[in-house]
Write a structure and sequence with these properties.
about 325 residues, mainly beta, five-stranded antiparallel beta sheet, globular, disordered N terminus, disordered C terminus
Length: about 325
Amino acid sequence: MRNKSIATAAVIGALMFTSSPALAEEFVNIDGSNPANGVFWEIDEYGIAYAGDIDDNFATIYYPNEVYGGSDYFYCGDSGDSASEITVTTEPNGDVTVDCPPVADVVDDGITSTMHFRFYAESDTGYLARQWIEIENTTDEAITLSSGLYIYYYWNYNEWTEGDNYVTSQGNDYAEAGDTWAAGSDIVGEDIATTSAWAASCFTDDFTPDAGYYYPEATNTIAANSTTNLLTFFNIVFPVEASADAAEAAYATVIAQADEYGSLTGRLDDGLPTDEDFVGWSTGACPSANLADTGAPESFTGAVGLGISALALGAVTVVARRRRSS
């Protein structure tokens, strides 16, 4: 499965090289007040590798929204040299975009994939990241991937502790057919809350209960000389303090933020090409889950965030950091 070397480089405003590239990874840091100094996003060959608060007060996220298809994962480059070809841009509005080099004939022969990321500046709904994967058939014949497209939508590989909150777009305790996002929080551990979204329309099927979700069968066939686009989002909210009440408030915040996934509009489509379709995002939208059915306390409805809404819009920097210990 993970048998590729990690694409490496240190990022300090722009890409730079080190004498020992295998020891460095790329980080995008979003400065902010939630928590005090903001969030870090680490990028390696698999895309977003880790994410967490800069001060290490809360849990670290591992490989959110990782996508597998054909015979391999989708990569941000396919060798240790690929890091030198990654483009990191600070946008005028404070977002940071990361464009990876294309990877040919790894997922399947005839398929070239390219990953793009957008890390949104801090908002009162948390720290949002977008992942866009282009899957291009470069041949003159249709290609059906050797295995179905599959997204790991849990926030990390660990199971939620009994008593923690978890809910999907349809109010389920685990993803079922038709769900388009999931939200979770670590109430027991007084820790972070997250959402993961893979569609705005009720399109998904064939859910597999091992921390992932299959795309529709038709998505696995890419027409000759055409491109299939996959789009996912991942949001993180940190509690304002280490307490059960603050963790509940963070969960209420991500539930409210999930309404944003109803359609590909507003900041969600910033920088995306207008002439491309995105699987699950280009047609219709599922109704939002009723907050009363999501497990979010009714006392938080209308008063989301327990002070989190007072966050200031942070500045954005791109810096080098060491990998978190696993």
